[in-house]
Amino acid sequence: MKRTILVIDDDIDLVEIIRLTLESEGFGVIDAQNGARGLDLARERKPDLILLDVMMGEIDEGFQVAYELRKGDNTRDIPIIMLTAVADQTGYAFDPEKDSDFLPVDEYLEKPVSPRRLVDLVRKHLPPTI
Amino acid sequence: MERRAAGAVAQTAPEPIAAESAHFVSAASLRLRSDWFNRMRWIAAVGMVAVSLLAVEFGRVALPRLPILLTAAVLLAMNTVYTLRNRRVPATDIRAELIVVKIQMILDLLLLTVLLGFSGGIENPFHFVYIIHVLLAGLLFKGREIRRMSLLAGLLFTAEVLGEATGLVPHRHLSSGPEMSRDWRFVSSGLAAFWLVLVACAYLSASIMRHNRTIKDDLVIRQQQLMAADKAKIDFFRYVSHEVKTPVVTAQSAVEAVLAVAGADMAEKPRDLLRRTVERLRQATEIVQGLSDLTRGPLHQGQDVRDLNLNHLIATLLDGQQSLVESRGLRVEARLPAEDVLLRASETMVEKVLGNLISNAVRYNRDGGRLTVELRDLGDAVRVSVADEGIGIRPEDLGRIFDEFYRTPEAKAASTLGTGLGLPIVKRFIEQMGGEIVVTSEPGRGSTFTATLRRS
Prior knowledge:
The structure holds two protein chains of two kinds. Helix content of chain A is 39%, strand content 18%. By secondary structure, chain A is α/β, with parallel strands linked by helices. In chain A, helix 2 packs parallel to helix 3. Chain B has three domains: 19-226, no CATH class; 240-294; 304-454, Histidine kinase-like ATPase, C-terminal domain (Heat Shock Protein 90, 2-Layer Sandwich). In chain B, 63% of the residues lie in helices and 11% in strands. In chain B, the strands form two sheets. Chain B has a six-stranded mixed β-sheet, covered by helices on one side. Chain B has a two-stranded antiparallel ribbon with strand order 2-4. In chain B, helix 3 (65-88) runs antiparallel to helix 4 and helix 7 runs antiparallel to helix 8 (268-294). Chain B is elongated, with a radius of gyration of 36 Å. The chains are: A alpha/beta, B alpha+beta. The interface between A and B is medium-sized, with 21 and 28 residues.
């Protein structure tokens, strides 16, 4: 069965790039252009993994979505890979180990998104099929 | 040939405009002056003892030795208290320091009046020490405080002189000439001259300091305006760099995705062209990132300062270059001390500095060349030198390699993809951390960059 990846990002072009990359590797891709829609989709469709942009409409919208996902019973266990260009804005590069206390995501992927690294990380964090 | 980029902390916070500026001097600088006053008092007390002894023994002047010695003893005791206070109490509050100095001046004036009473009054040429106090008050205080201190000095001297003139206070005759302390013409003209000089000195010193305060306030305001403008420039630049980077990064990701998905099916030439496009877009991203880094040093300094293990950091950075090192057949030698070297500093800045130096040494080395990284703990500083056996730098280029966007002709020939921002970032970050970088180089034989980072 096709594994489904939810991409939450307001950059439509980037969503299409990710879609092209992941679909060519056999994944199904659904997308949302804002945090609220992303949360709805996550709850309705329960994707296997979520790619989440940090900065959308609000500067910390991605963080808020991550907190909400971790609170929901249906979404708590979905792996999250956070897409960031935050280092570009702040000089601060996230680290999943150092920052796990305040930001509960599984991985950070700094933009530009390298197709090979994207696919590797998605495969790494996808839960094993039953 | 050696080029040294001297390091100094480039950005320091401005002094607050409020209390310090209003008083012109800072608490610390006032304390330095207070120490100087204390030294003068030691000299004055010793002088009083010496004069009282010598004048009586050799000058045949009938000075009362005991009261003068007692006055000197009081001055010594007071000065001991002042000196101890200066040693034990840190100078942090300008208002407290000013109050202390004011009390000291009042006591000095009282003691001076007592001393004059025992040593000739208006005949004693040291009565102009009152004027010195008035000048000091003009330099340190403002408006009403200067007038009060001047009035006190004038009144004390006038009271002493009139006391002697009227016979209320005994007069000690110093000169061998006629007795003048009860000559009203001499007394009144002496007092008039004294008051004239006193008022003139108070006015002049106060007016000079008023002018200086205006200049200083203006400078502080200009400094704040410049800092605000600098911050606005940095904010604007950060915004622009993000706005430029976003579409470039998306374009890079798009081309990479096309290559990944359809590259295998493409003809060689278009595929090669797309690969070059990716490299160029990556270069553009690096330039924007580099420019952003150049404006960001102070942010890092307050942000991610931690104890860094430089042995681990260097090993990790060398690991990151492993594939390039292998493809070019470089021989890497890491001379790291057995004991881990720790440095408390911004992780991002140190990583950028060492990362840039190491990647340059890989990029501009000759095939099969040696790359040596040496780490030394100097106690109050750490020193990292990165040496290659590559293209080297011509003497005429050594002065320009830290300029933004400058790339030597040899560097351009060796690699088209450099940004010309790596070394400027290295220099800027090292300077902001209070260190320095030195480069020695021989064209065609290689370069050694030595970064010294202080543990302050």
